[in-house]
Design goal:
This protein has 159 residues and is mainly alpha-helical. The protein contains 6 helices and 2 strands; from the N terminus they run ααββαααα. It has a two-stranded antiparallel sheet with strand order 1-2. Helix 2 (32-47) packs antiparallel against helix 3, helix 2 (32-47) packs parallel to helix 4 and helix 4 packs antiparallel against helix 6.
């Protein structure tokens, strides 16, 4: 292990391990993958209507009159992905909105960003609708607990 004169290397590892643990905890409390797929669905939908490609000297422009529609759909999908990360209680609304926007992007935005945005949006919306928060056990104090065991020397009664 290489350290400098001030011993900064081990502290860096501890800080990195702590950051990874915090990120893993943060990721587990929300529909992280649904938000990632939803945000990534917006990028090809935004890109293809404004891309100018050159194939062997032949210009290929995918821009259509629906460029504004693709812009709106792409920006909304990115916003819905961020909503899934930072407001996980809106997961059902964001999931259904993602599914509807990606289906609308098929005719409006060059086959849903040449099927890349369509497929990732359908995956993200489905993950968002199906995600449920982790089960948390309610903390009960000793006063709230009732014993179901029979006292010593008695047999439980069958009522």
């Amino acid at each position: 292990m290489i350290t400098n004169l001030f011993g900064r290397r081990p502290r860096l590892r501890v800080t990195a391990a702590h950051a990874r643990r915090r990120f893993r905890t943060w990721r587990g409390e929300r529909p992280f993958w649904a938000g990632l797929f939803t945000s990534m669905a917006g990028l090809p939908i935004l890109y293809w209507p404004y891309a100018n490609l050159d194939l062997g000297g032949i210009p290929l422009a995918m821009s259509t009159t629906s460029g504004a529609g693709a812009l709106i759909i792409g920006v909304l999908l990115i916003a819905l992905g961020l909503t899934l990360w930072y407001h996980p209680h809106l997961r059902v609304f964001a999931g259904i909105a993602t599914l509807l926007l990606t289906l609308i992007s098929f005719p409006v935005a060059n086959f849903g960003g040449l099927f890349l945005g369509l497929i990732t949006g359908l995956i993200g919306g489905s993950l968002a609708c199906s995600w449920t928060p982790g089960a948390t056990e309610p903390s009960t104090g000793p006063a709230d607990r009732t014993s179901t065991a029979a006292p010593a020397g008695e047999e439980p009664r069958g009522d």
